Amino acid sequence: MKQILLILFAALLLPTSVLAARSPASFSVGRALVSASSSPGNAYLAGVSVVSTAPIAGDLSSIGGSIVTAAPVSGDELLLAGSVSSRASVGGDVRVAGGSVTVEGSVAGDLVAFGYSVYDSVRALGSTFIIAVNAVLSNGAVGPVIVYGNNVSLSGDFAGNVTVTATGHLSVAPSTTIRGKLVYEAPEAATIPDSATILGGVEYTSASYLPDAGTSRILSLVSIGFFLFARIFGALILAGLLAGLFPKFSEAIIERAHTKKMRNILLAMLLGFAILVATPVLIVLLTLTFVGIGLALLLLILYALLVLLSLLYAGILIGGSFARRFEKRERVFWRDGMFGMLALSLIALIPFVGLFVLLLLTLFTAGALLQIFFHFAFPHEEQIDELI
Q1: Helix (H) or strand (E) run with residue 217 in it
Q2: How are beta strands 32-35 and 145-154 bridged, if at all?
Q3: CA–CA separation, 306 vs 329, rounded Å?
Q4: On the chain, which terminus has fewer CB atoms closer than 10 Å, C or N?
Q5: Which residues in the chain show pLDDT less than 70?
């Protein structure tokens, strides 16, 4: 089924006369390709840079980074590239897609163009359909015109109806003639000069593509909710990983929180407060000297890591404390870290009280982490068995 759909899609992209062509087709591929020999049938060109300088009796299909067609094409033209310039006449339809699109040769059939910027200076005999951020039609069109873009500019002689949907601005050049009807939708009405002639009349629809106040509030709430969900979900994963990979480390912090000596808890909180407050001041002082910039950068990285670990272990502390209180176990599992971080995230959403609780727990875990690191780096003989 997928192969059938791909074949149908490819058939829609190719010019219709490709399927009916009887003359031999030519295929050319190269990094910098210059096609200087004429083709009696269809021509297929591909390369980083493609330049066609010989007439083609059939259709032209080309893909590349940059495409320039400087010779007539009797059939249809299909061009896909980052930059496209069609400078010669085309006897059939022109279908172009690229970042920058310029169509300067005459087009006997329809013109379909997609791009960031599209400049159309031909007077296509068939219909014209353009989708671009910036679209310029400088020479009118014989058939009906439909344009979707941000900024759209019209000039020349248009024999049929012109329909424009602009998210930005529509401009009509002086002496422009539209023999049909101008129907456009834009945030602001276009300034139509007195020298411009629109025989079928003008139909304007005011359309603001910016959200109104109600929609803006809804989008803001959705964005905040998504941000909170992503932050909480990421914190849950990190806390679960820390608790699962380093259970002994988590148990050591929880043990310090359940000590019967209140002065040990206060000492850890004071140590955490001193480090979290004094380190930024030290970093600022170090950046004032050329020699201390490198050390300041290192301290900044360590400080950010300490704050992150303190927040994560604050959640693990809550989860481990619940496990001790209700499940009567001292071992810490990964689910304890995730549960505790979820509880801490919900507590932090409470105005004032939540932030105060978060601050106290973070100060304690920061101090406890520093004490554990210190004892690990400078162990005493009686602490050898307690190292983590």
Answers
A1: helix 213-245
A2: unpaired
A3: 28
A4: N
A5: 1-23, 208-216, 377-388
Q: Are 262 and 364 in contact (CB under 8 A)?
A: no
Of 38, 53, 85, the C-alpha closest to 66 is: 85
Residues 6+ apart with CB under 8 A from 384: none
Torsion of CA 83, 89, 91, 92, to 10 degrees: 20
Query: Which residues lie across from 115 on neighbouring strands?
Result: 98, 132
The answer to whether 125 touches 144, Cβ cutoff 8 Å, is no
- In this predicted structure, what is the pLDDT of residue 127? 94
Read off the pLDDT of residues 1-26 as tens digits, 9 standing for 90 and up: 334 333 333 433 444 444 344 567 78
Residue 77: per-residue pLDDT: 94
Question: How far is C-alpha 337 from the geometric centre of its chain's CA atoms?
Answer: 33
**Residue 314: strand pairing partners:** none
Tens digit of each residue's pLDDT (9 = 90 or more) over 208-223: 666 666 666 777 778 8
DSSP of 119-188: EE-S--SS-EEEEEEEEEE-S-BSS-EEEEEEEEEE-SEE-S-EEEEEEEEEEE-TT-EESS-EEEEESS
